[in-house]
Amino acid sequence: MNSDSAKILRPILEETGIVGKNQIWKPLSGGRSNVVWRIGDKVCKLYKQNRTSELFPNNPVDEQRVLDFLKGTSLAPDLLYFKQLKIGPVLVYKFVDGPVFKVPSEKIAQSLLKLHSIPTQNIVLKRRDSSSKNLLQQCKNLLHGGDLHELNLPNDPNIPDSQIQSIIHGDPVAGNIVDNGKNAVFIDWQCCAIGDPTEDIACALSPAMHHLYGEGELDLITRKNFIKFYENNEIADRYEVLGHLYHIRIAAYCFWRAGQGDKDYQEAFLKEKDFLNTVYN
Fold first, then answer.
1. What CATH code is assigned to 2-94?
2. 5-15 pLDDT, tens per residue?
């Protein structure tokens, strides 16, 4: 699909002047949802419309909106082009130079806190509900009557949605974050929303997501240091209260993906299950 799609997109983007003629389109690996190329100092993303879920939506319009909104913050790439084409939605942004992170780090925690501190009244994004009732319902939706291999859902602790509402990235795994030398820059914003900042913390500290998108083991010391450098006790305390449900939901998601034939999610599920058994049992 990469080469055929590039043949269709190349003349369109060359005509607009967004990319130069005869530049090399280099497919980028790592993403599981969309087709992505590096073209000189730019990145082009073609969205696959069948790669979406309740937990990890793949919304090109929200990504375009948030990149526009965050311009100049150093938290996201600079948006250069977005259009709904016949082949699908296409977005082009300025390439962020630097390596992707391998583990959740001090820089990532600090950039997340900066993101979560930005007022949300001037941006329109989908809202996410992090009440315990909704988190448990999402687990049930993913399981479709199955069970988590003896990892049972707890009773609802009746925790309401957070009063703190922030822009959340939705998928801040190490592989979606670039170290530009000064700070952590988030890419792949197709899961962004307005919601509870603890959503991002749970994803960043998920052993399953780290297994899929990071390197090495995600140990408890790394997790502890991440919370320390996030430097917002109110949000960190809420994560500690809701963490059990967040990580069960991620386990349920991996269980569902494994059932869809994505074999690497089976190992990810086991990583999250082991973590839950170690920390919450």
1. 3.30.200.20
2. 999 999 999 99
- CA pair distance 210, 213, nearest whole angstrom: 5
State the Cα angle at 80 between 13 and 43, rounded to 5°.
Answer: 70
Per-domain residue ranges of the chain: 2-94, 106-279
The predicted-structure confidence for 217-227, as pLDDT tens digits, reads as follows 999 999 999 99
CATH number of 106-279: 3.90.1200.10
Read off φ and ψ for residue 12, nearest 5 degrees: -65, -50
Whether 81 and 91 have beta carbons less than 8 Å apart is answered as yes
Tokens of 12: 């369109």
Q: Model-level pTM greater than 0.90?
A: yes
Question: 3-class SS at 94?
Answer: strand
The amino acid occupying position 277 is N
Q: What is the pLDDT of residues 153-184, one digit of tens each?
A: 899 999 999 999 999 999 999 999 999 999 99
Strand-strand pairing, 42-46 and 88-94? antiparallel
Place of tokens 């043949």: 7
Hey, do 2-94 and 106-279 end up sharing a CATH topology, with the first three levels equal? no
